[in-house]
């Protein structure tokens, strides 16, 4: 007879609470900072795409 492949063990259930705002270096602050960084990067790419100029030209450094 052929044996059925065993499934990997399921991880234990975790509490999926979202991090709460707090002062200082917290997981919530890092999450928000990362999201704003991604938005800023995409905004910069769109600016360069539509104006055909780079950031340094916009800042007057070139």
Q: Secondary-structure element order, as H and E?
A: HH
Q: How many strands in all?
A: 0
> Beta fraction of the residues?
under 5%
The value of Rg in angstroms is 23 Å
**How helical, in percent, are the residues?**
40-55%
Structural class: mainly alpha
Overall geometry comes to elongated
Flag low-confidence runs: none
Give me the number of helical elements: 2
Return the average pLDDT rounded to an integer: 84
The largest β sheet comes out as:
none
What distance separates the N and C termini? 74 Å
Brief synopsis:
This protein is mainly α and 62 residues long. It contains two helices and no strands. It has helices at residues 27-51, 55-58.
Describe the structure.
- Helices cover 47% and strands 0% of the residues.
- It contains two helices and no strands.
- The relative contact order is 0.07.
Set down the secondary structure blueprint.
Blueprint: H1 27-51, H2 55-58
Descriptive terms for the model:
mainly alpha; 62 residues; 2 helices; single chain
């Amino acid at each position: 007879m052929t044996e059925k492949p065993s499934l990997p063990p399921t991880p234990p259930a975790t509490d999926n609470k979202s991090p709460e705002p707090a002062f200082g270096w917290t997981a919530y602050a890092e999450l928000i900072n990362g999201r704003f960084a991604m938005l800023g990067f995409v905004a910069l790419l769109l600016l360069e795409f539509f104006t055909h100029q780079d950031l340094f030209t916009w800042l007057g450094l070139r």
